[in-house]
Write a structure and sequence with these properties.
With 173 residues, the protein is of the alpha+beta class. The chain has one domain: PvuII Endonuclease, Chain A. The protein is 32% helix and 21% strand. The chain has helices spanning 4-9, 12-28, 39-51, 122-128, 144-147, 156-164, and strands spanning 54-55, 65-66, 72-80, 101-108, 114-121, 130-132, 137-139, 153-154. A 6-stranded mixed beta sheet has the order 1-2-3-4-5-8. The N and C termini lie far apart (39 Å).
Length: 173
C-alpha cells in the first residue's frame, strides 16, 4: 500500500493507474461490475484543465463545462480495452442537445491513460445518434467516424499532458 506522502506527491495519472489496479481486483472478486466509476469526473477535470472555463454544477443536465466565450461542453467518457470493443464505444444517453461541443474521451482500462480525446460539434454527434425510448435519450458511439467528423479536433495530446502535469493546464484554445 502507498503511504499518504506517496499519494500526495503522485501525479493524477499515477493515482489513476493505481485506482485501475484496484478496480481490476474488485472486478475479479465480483465486487464491482464495471471500470467506469471515476471516468466521468476525471474526464470533466481533464477537459476543464485543457479548455479552461467553469465546471457546471452536477445538477445541470445539458453540459458540464462553460468556456470563457460561452461555449457549452458536454463531456462523455468511456473506459476501453485494447482492442476497443463496440460496446465500449457506446456513450451514456444524450437527453438534451443544449450544448455546443462534445468532449469525447476514451480512457485505458489498464491505467486510465487518455487513449483518444476529441472535441466534436454537437450537431455531428446528434446526426450520428439514435433515439432509444427505453433510456429516454439518444445513443451515440465513439467511432472513428464520429471522432474524426467535420469540425472535430483531436485533443488527445493536451489531455495526456494535463493528466501528467500536477500544476498547470495544457490549453488548446
Amino acid at each position: 500500500m502507498l503511504t499518504v506522502e506517496q499519494l500526495t506527491s503522485a501525479t493524477p495519472k499515477q493515482l489513476l493507474a493505481g485506482y485501475a489496479a484496484v478496480l481490476r481486483e474488485l472486478r475479479s472478486r465480483e465486487i464491482v461490475r464495471t471500470n467506469n466509476a471515476p471516468a466521468g469526473d476525471y474526464a470533466e477535470w481533464l477537459a476543464q484543465r485543457v479548455l479552461g472555463g467553469v465546471l457546471a454544477p452536477n445538477s445541470v443536465k445539458s453540459y458540464d463545462l462553460t468556456l470563457e466565450d460561452g461555449t457549452r461542453v458536454q463531456v462523455k467518457a468511456r473506459v476501453v480495452g485494447d482492442p476497443i470493443s463496440s460496446s465500449q464505444r457506446q456513450m451514456s444517453p444524450f437527453r438534451s442537445w443544449d450544448f455546443d461541443l462534445g468532449a469525447l474521451v476514451q480512457l485505458s482500462a489498464t491505467n486510465y491513460t487518455v487513449v483518444r480525446a476529441a472535441l466534436v460539434p454537437a450537431d455531428e454527434i446528434r446526426n450520428r445518434a439514435t433515439y432509444r425510448a427505453h433510456v429516454n435519450g439518444h445513443i451515440a458511439f465513439m467511432t472513428e467516424d464520429l471522432l474524426g467528423a467535420p469540425g472535430a479536433q483531436d485533443v488527445t495530446r493536451p489531455f495526456n499532458i494535463a493528466a501528467s502535469d500536477r500544476e498547470g493546464p495544457a490549453s488548446v484554445r
